Amino acid sequence: MNANDTFQLDKATLVDQSTAQMDRQFAESGYTLRQKLALTCRILFENGHDSGLAGQITARTGTPGEFYTQRLGLGFDEISEDNLLRVDEDLNVLEGGGMANPANRFHSWVYRARPDVNCIIHTHAVHTAALGMLETPLVISHMDNCVLYDDVAFVAQWPGVPVGNEEGVLISGALGNKRALMLSHHGLLIAGQSVEEACVLAIAFERAARMQLLAMAAGDIKPIDPALGKEAHDWILRPTRNTVGFEYYARRALKNPRNADCLSR
Q1: Pair type for strands 152-155 and 180-183
Q2: What is the pTM of this model?
Q3: Is 203 helix (H, G, I), strand (E, B) or coil?
Q4: Is residue 104 within 8 Å of 86, Cβ to Cβ?
Q5: What's the pLDDT tens digit per position in 207-264?
Q6: With contact defined as beta carbons under 8 Å apart, do 84 and 34 qualify?
Q7: pLDDT tens for residues 164-204?
């Protein structure tokens, strides 16, 4: 068989070849950690995650017990790499001005429970919040949304404002080993291995919620085959694809003159 004749190859081989090619073709992001966080805030704002001052983003700094977060009082559309805070897990500010959102306390609980998590996003995106008002779990029934297939936990009962340790215990426990959590009457939580992964998953989560509400209004949502859902999840959710997706959203955000102050010059 001709080495270039791919029409005789099975699917598993084609998948392996494609993933290897992508890993060779695309480099890691050239943005710094602080820049990725600031860009993610602007990206989220432009993709339906704006809810005034509600919502938080954090990322481990590399020093145990420390993470970066945004300053309380600033919306996602105002976050830049220069106004991020470096805090400890008790939310004491170690670098920067102002204070952290007290609701970041549950982030500390998640980081303690999940050493694999390096970035957490929590927002009150409108379609997710609307679905939460119905106390309905997120249903993954479309190929685009399979990045979250079997990766979303669910809290049916609202625990109240998440500023106490009780909420930290509840949320971190409910999340388990999943990458995402749906909180009824509240919003979404993403626990990513990287900023890029968390950003892409947060956008996917809100889009999935919007699609679900549209589908529910038209009829009953039909389930997809679990094996195919898992296959699509693993195909989409790879570090290289997350980086490529993040870079696209970053380019799109930076074309907007409103985001000119996001990165230092």
Answers
A1: parallel
A2: 0.94
A3: helix
A4: no
A5: 999 999 999 999 999 999 999 999 999 989 999 999 999 999 999 999 999 999 999 8
A6: yes
A7: 788 889 999 999 999 999 999 999 999 999 999 999 999 99
| Secondary structure letter of residue 236 according to DSSP | H
Q: How far is CA 33 from CA 5, 50, 227, in A?
A: 42, 22, 35
Structure tokens at 118: 């390096």
Work out the number of other CB atoms within 10 angstroms of the CB of residue 82.
12
Q: How many residues does the chain have?
A: 265
Q: Is the dihedral of CA 129, 211, 232, 202 positive or negative?
A: negative
- Closest listed residue to residue 253, CA positions, set 47, 34, 22: 47
Burial 45-67 (b: 16+ CB within 10 A, else e): bbbbbbbeebbbbbbbbeeeebb
> Beta strand pairing status for 187-192 and 180-183?
antiparallel
- Long-range contacts of residues 249-258, Cβ cutoff 8 Å, at least 24 apart: 249/39, 249/43, 249/47, 249/199, 249/200, 249/203, 250/31, 250/39, 250/43, 252/43, 252/46, 253/39, 253/42, 253/43, 253/46, 254/39, 256/42, 256/46, 258/77
| Sheet architecture: strand order including 56-60 | 93-95, 85-88, 66-69, 56-60, 119-123, 187-192, 180-183, 152-155
CA-based Rg of the chain, rounded to a whole angstrom? 19
The owner of tokens 């920067």 is 96
For residues 197 and 119, the answer to whether their CB atoms sit within 8 Å is yes
